[in-house]
């Protein structure tokens, strides 16, 4: 049966260097439940090490936590991959880590990258340069996300930097991107007037939250049967009555 | 200034090697954001960039740029080279950084045309 599920698919935890330290998996889940969300994805920069904890916290709640990652391609385009399970996200992480800008994070410059467990305890710090980009071409990232049965969403396409439109001018022909994301402040009509290709793709809005208050500030309603990546893909493709709707 | 002269003076490598260099370079532009080049690139400009994605060829055609130069020893992939061939866009490479290459181009008398 098709139901309406309110989703925020782009949330950064305290593993992202630029996110607030309060963004622990436990607090993110509690805030998302409190805001009445049905489905979220933790999408940290080039890493997925806080997802397991968030999934554990959400286990006995009404909230579904999906495994996401915001990957920076060699063109410095940001893409959110949403994966069917934790293992798939770990496979993507292995590839991303192998191709990430070498070097160590400088916490005083970029921020701390904290791995936190389901009980809000610090498990450790990630020392990689997660703020950097990979040497993976965008086509290869999308291909790999699809190999892992995930969906690929181009991040904040209305922004000038780190977006597919800003970095590459337009969406390359033949790139199998599943959906485009508008940043929280964007208005669809204004964005579509500026980016003609917007109307060629499913469009989602997400919070891109870096602190607790931002969670759920923009969401997307998914009309589909279940909170799975397969169903998200079906909703993008408008299969048998499924669809998506931008929401506040 | 003729593109062939710029290529010779700055020791640029051409791919594919049989692309015609019989073009006039009117000035230069440097940016790694393709959206920015689409807004600010001028006809006849030589474009200095790190971006090697196939989309650069379409941008060069759209803006009627005289050539693209990939700096820092970046190499284009097969798809970018194929598009350069089919669109007859001179795709050049330099081992220099953008800063150093642009210094040389400036020394040849080329200027920005914004």
Counting DSSP E segments of at least 2 residues, the number of strands of chain A comes to: 11
Helices and strands of chain B, in N-to-C order?
Answer: HEEHEHEHEH
CATH topology of chain B: Udp-n-acetylmuramoylalanyl-d-glutamate--2,6- Diaminopimelate Ligase, Chain: A, domain 1
Q: Structurally, how many domains make up the residues of chain B?
A: 1
**The top level CATH class name of chain A:** Alpha Beta
Q: Write the CATH homologous superfamily of chain B.
A: HprK N-terminal domain-like
Architecture per CATH nomenclature, i.e. the level-2 architecture of chain B: 3-Layer(aba) Sandwich
**How far is the N terminus from the C terminus of chain A?**
24 Å
Strand-pairing-aware structural class of chain B: alpha/beta
Strand elements of chain B, count = 5
Averaged pLDDT of chain B? 96
Q: Find the biggest chain interface.
A: A-B, 13 and 14 residues
The main sheet of chain B comes to: 5 strands, mixed
- How much helix, percentage-wise, in residues of chain A? 25-40%
Could you give the order of strands across the largest sheet of chain B?
Answer: 1-5-4-3-2
Q: Tell me the radius of gyration of chain A.
A: 17 Å
| Total of helices of chain A | 8
Would you write up a description of this structure?
- The complex is a heterodimer of chains A (248) and B (114).
- Chain A is built from eight helices and eleven strands.
- Chain A is of the alpha/beta class and 248 residues long.
- Chain A has a single domain, classed as Alpha-Beta Barrel (TIM Barrel).
- In chain A, the strands form two sheets. In chain A, strands 9-8-7-4-3-2-1-10-11 form a nine-stranded mixed beta sheet, with helices on both faces. A two-stranded antiparallel sheet of chain A has the order 5-6.
- In chain A, strand 1, helix 1 and strand 2 form a beta-alpha-beta unit.
- In chain A, helix 1 crosses helix 2.
- The longest helix of chain A has 14 residues.
- In chain B, strands 1-5-4-3-2 form a five-stranded mixed beta sheet, sandwiched between helices.
- In chain B, strand 3, helix 3 and strand 4 form a beta-alpha-beta unit.
- Helix content of chain B is 37%, strand content 17%.
- Chains A and B meet through helix 6 of A and helix 2 and helix 3 of B.
